[in-house]
């Protein structure tokens, strides 16, 4: 590719945005890694680890794979430089096109995996609300279908595929308008993000809790609003760039904006799991019981099963004496040798009472 610098080359601005591009490229994966690490540590504290954690971990590994590929492309193609400052003779266009192709292929399933992780979490806390469960399953099916179709279009954006990075060798290749494909599926991502955002409100709207707790709970579960906003901004910017590409199109970090969207999606997916960690670091925020240490020994109580009833072999009511402690800690310190300690699975909706005359709480409410 030949490029002739303008006559006033020496008087032009020769700064670049590559440092900003690299900061975005690595900053948000680091933020996502911190969020996932805190989530896993929180689950280690409560001795819980589910399928949603596996999905988020796989997504995190793919995010770092995308980050490495993006870094290679940013450096080798001089992303952030003015077009008149790029030494085109030193750029391997076929190799950089392969990096773009690889980054796109890796990016597509990441958000899908994050949304499946969120859906599994919402399914678990939705209790006995069958309509909510059906809506969550529908969201998962729609999400998987959208990811599959998107991946298909990215994979076969040109036929033969090699024409993606070597158009000159395949002058008769048939290729899609990839800007249109990217913008379309960015818009679909925004729609699925919005659908996932509505579900938490549906789950908690009829809970018999205080307005403050309900607002906190909806806020925690709806932290994905930042993902919706970032996805919407990305879709708009991509559409504008495709419709009116600037002359100095390389002086931009738009290629790196997907890292912002994905990084914020990780934070949103991990935020609801942070209560055990926050309780440990700042117990007054969610203070509802007492924990402490005396003379170097733990003062945690052991929760005993005091009453259990079964109706027609399908439903079980369990009464637990928590000794006035934080209900959210019931999950901890289960001793296998004591048959009266509490055993439960992640698929069970946990209900309890603060005292024999108190109201019933659910596992959803324990988030706040």
TrEMBL record:
Methyltransferase as UniProt keyword: no
UniProt keyword Membrane present: yes
GO cellular component assignments: membrane
Keywords: Membrane, Transmembrane, Transmembrane helix
Recorded topology in the membrane: Multi-pass membrane protein
Principal localisation: membrane
Domain Rhodopsin: 38-279
Name of one Pfam family that matches: Fung_rhodopsin
Compartments reported by the entry: Membrane
Bilayer-spanning residue ranges: 21-42, 54-79, 99-123, 135-165, 185-205, 217-243, 249-274
Similarity comment: family membership: Belongs to the SAT4 family.
PANTHER family: INTEGRAL MEMBRANE PROTEIN, PTH11-LIKE INTEGRAL MEMBRANE PROTEIN (AFU_ORTHOLOGUE AFUA_5G11245)
Protein name, UniProt field: Rhodopsin domain-containing protein
């Amino acid at each position: 590719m030949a490029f002739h610098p303008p006559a006033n080359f020496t008087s032009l601005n020769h700064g670049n945005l590559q440092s900003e591009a690299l900061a975005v490229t690595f900053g948000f994966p680091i933020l996502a890694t911190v969020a996932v690490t805190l989530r896993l540590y929180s689950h280690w504290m409560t001795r819980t680890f589910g399928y949603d954690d596996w999905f988020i971990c796989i997504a995190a590994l793919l995010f770092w794979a995308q980050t490495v590929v993006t870094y290679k492309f940013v450096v080798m193609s001089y992303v952030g430089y003015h077009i008149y400052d790029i030494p085109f003779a030193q750029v391997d266009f076929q190799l950089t096109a392969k990096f773009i192709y690889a980054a796109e292929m890796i990016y597509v399933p990441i958000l899908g995996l994050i949304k499946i992780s969120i859906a599994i979490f919402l399914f678990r806390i939705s209790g006995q609300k069958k309509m909510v469960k059906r809506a969550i399953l529908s969201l998962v099916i729609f999400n998987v279908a959208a990811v599959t179709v998107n991946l298909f279009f990215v994979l076969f954006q040109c036929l033969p595929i090699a024409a993606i990075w070597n158009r000159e060798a395949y002058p008769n290749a048939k290729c899609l308008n990839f800007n249109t494909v990217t913008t379309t599926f960015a818009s679909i991502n925004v729609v699925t993000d919005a659908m996932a955002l509505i579900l938490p409100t549906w789950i908690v709207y009829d809970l018999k809790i205080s307005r403050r707790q309900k607002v906190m709970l909806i806020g925690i579960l709806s932290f994905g609003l930042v993902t919706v906003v970032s996805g919407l901004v990305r879709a708009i910017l991509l559409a504008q760039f495709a419709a009116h590409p600037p002359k100095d199109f390389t002086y931009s970090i738009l290629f790196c904006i997907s890292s912002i969207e994905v990084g914020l999606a990780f934070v949103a997916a991990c935020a609801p799991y942070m209560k055990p960690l926050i309780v440990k670091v700042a117990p007054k925020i969610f203070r509802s019981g007492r924990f402490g240490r005396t003379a170097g020994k733990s003062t945690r109580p052991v929760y005993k099963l005091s009453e259990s009833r079964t109706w027609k072999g399908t439903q079980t009511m369990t009464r637990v004496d928590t000794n006035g402690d934080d209900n959210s800690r019931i999950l901890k310190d289960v001793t296998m040798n004591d048959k009266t300690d509490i055993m439960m699975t992640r698929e069970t909706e946990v209900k309890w009472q603060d005292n024999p005359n108190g109201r019933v709480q659910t596992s959803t409410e324990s988030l706040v």
